[in-house]
Amino acid sequence: MPLESFSTPRLHAERLVEAHLDEIRRMHGDARVMALLGGVRTEQQSRDYLDRNLEHWERYGFGLWIVYTSARDTVVGRACVRHLDVEGTPEVEIGYALYPEWWGQGLATEIANRCIGIGRSELGLQSLVAVAHPANGGSRHVMEKVGMFHERDVVLAGERLVLYRTGERAARRSWP
Ligand SMILES: CC(C)(COP(=O)(O)OP(=O)(O)OC[C@H]1O[C@@H](n2cnc3c(N)ncnc32)[C@H](O)[C@@H]1OP(=O)(O)O)[C@@H](O)C(=O)NCCC(=O)NCCS
User: Fold this and answer.
1) Based on C-alpha coordinates, what's the Rg of the chain?
2) What's the Cα-to-Cα distance from 4 to each of 87, 92, 111, 151, 155, rounded to whole Å?
3) Domain CATH number, residue 29
4) Residue 37 and residue 133 in contact, taking contact as beta carbons nearer than 8 Å
5) Using CA atoms, how far apart are residues 130 and 54, in angstroms rounded to an integer?
6) pTM
7) Which tens digits make up the pLDDT trace of 56-74?
8) Distances (CA, A) of 108 to 45, 98, 124, 145, 155
9) CA gap 121, 137 in Å, rounded
């Protein structure tokens, strides 16, 4: 299956599997990683997150990857291309989260570019979105660097987020 793994110049990503539970727990327990993602999560929340994302893979054949260095011996973070219900409209989002020691090297940009490529080339999608906490300046800057634009603010699970979309604002639809 071509989507089960992918590589970028500096990274290698592997499809999420059950054996990644400890890695998910480690990410969810890192206060810096989770600061703008709703805070650290409990054991049960990590278990539920893993189950939801494994089910997504089963259903759609793509989803969340654990991201390693190219040598494949160290986990850098995670990436995703995933279905997302945005206020009743089905969308496909890209996402990324890295452990703090890997921030500031352009790695999230590398991941985001590849995830958009997967969405467009492998999945044939014309449009992908990404959402972030409004205060997540680093993530918003990544979205802008990969050519996404701030389309609007949305409320997901009770939280106000910024929604970015691939492509030119005018080319896709005419927002007021
Ligand atoms: C947000 C995150 C993914 C960025 O990863 P990264 O690998 O450091 O990102 P990159 O290096 O590719 O690019 C970040 C850019 O934002 C800039 N930046 C960093 N913090 C910023 C801030 N607070 N405000 C504005 N820009 C910021 C960086 O300077 C860089 O821009 P540059 O290349 O023009 O210098 C990373 O900090 C992270 O994993 N955070 C925790 C999880 C998370 O929030 N994920 C996103 C969920 S929406």
Assistant:
1) 15
2) 29, 17, 15, 30, 31
3) 3.40.630.30
4) yes
5) 20
6) 0.95
7) 999 999 999 999 999 999 9
8) 24, 7, 22, 10, 24
9) 28
The boundaries of the domain holding residue 121 are 2-172
Regions in the chain scoring below 50 on pLDDT: 174-176
Atom of ligand 1 nearest to the CA of 97: 39
The letter for the amino acid at 132 is A
Pairing of strands 11-15, 64-69: antiparallel
Could you tell me if the CB of 138 is within 6 A of ligand 1?
yes
Instruction: Check if 34 has its Cβ closer than 6 Å to any atom of ligand 1.
Output: no
Q: Are 175 and 152 in contact (CB under 8 A)?
A: yes
Domains: count for the chain: 1
